[in-house]
Design brief:
Strand content: 25-35%
Shape: globular
CATH topology of the largest domain: Rossmann fold
Number of strands: 12
Radius of gyration: 18 Å
Largest sheet: 6 strands, mixed
Distance between the termini: 33 Å
Helix content: 25-40%
């Protein structure tokens, strides 16, 4: 799976509400790699994930390469949740192209059990999803995505606002999925999360820069997207003051 791009965006532009959410994006995503999408709120990170997931068609441009199977973990906000148990949520991942229930086979149950174990939610299977903490819910939703055993795993800010244990579980899984030969694409406001990826795309509606973390996570590049919200503190390293109203600092 190694050297050839599995899926790519060729000159992709997306117009939303009369404005360009993405402008002329050219990028490849290769098997066995993780790509981080970095940029301020409104920079097109979620839109790019939606294009890769097939939820939003490009206004112009093409998606090239063979379409892989996809699992998406979208951003979740406070609100009303369906009255489902964790076990039911995980089993839904095995319904494939339809949400209609079907009889699950041994391989389905094995996939669900393995995903629950990897995210540490086996003890929660009988608990209602809406009774869980935010961190527990996020781990369940990532486990649901893993249970699909998809070729392309898309994660929209998967660790934002989570406790340290949940962050470490999810970051570990991202590395494992990459090592298993899958494509992982995630959006993030955390520079240390991006540094663990093979490729980083810095977005601001357009593609500001693409490359390895060392190549693009620099003050000069980040300021092209974030402006003066990037601080270069010699004692602590880069500090990114993002749109969530707090700073993330990393060496």
């Amino acid at each position: 799976m190694g050297d050839q791009p599995v899926i790519g965006l060729s000159n992709v532009t997306v117009v939303r509400g009369g404005l360009r959410a993405l402008d002329c994006i050219d990028v490849d995503f290769r098997s066995g790699t993780a790509t981080a999408l970095v940029g301020p709120n409104g920079s097109g990170k979620t839109t790019l994930l939606e294009v890769l997931a097939g939820l939003r068609a490009p206004t112009t441009g093409l998606i090239v390469g063979e379409r892989p199977s996809v699992a998406l973990v979208a951003q979740r906000h406070a609100g009303t949740w369906m009255p489902l148990t964790v076990g039911e949520v995980l089993r839904m991942a095995r319904f494939r192209s339809t949400l209609l229930p079907r009889r699950l086979g041994p391989s389905d149950h094995a996939a669900v059990d393995a995903a629950a174990g990897r995210l540490g939610v086996r003890t929660l299977l009988d608990r209602p999803l809406d009774r869980l903490s935010f961190g527990q819910r996020q781990r369940v939703l990532v486990a649901q995505a893993l249970a699909r055993e998809a070729d392309l795993l898309l994660l929209d800010e998967p660790i934002t606002g989570l406790d340290l244990i949940s962050q470490e579980r999810i970051l570990s899984v991202i590395g494992q999925e990459r090592e298993a030969g899958r494509i992982v694409v995630l959006s993030t406001h955390h520079l240390d999360e991006a540094r663990h990826c093979d490729q980083v795309l810095v977005l601001d509606g357009r593609l500001v820069a693409a490359g390895t973390p060392d190549e693009v996570l620099t003050p000069d590049v980040l300021r092209q997207a974030y402006g003066e919200r990037v601080l270069d503190d010699h004692a602590r390293g880069l500090v990114l003051v993002d749109d969530h109203g707090h700073g993330h600092e990393y060496v």
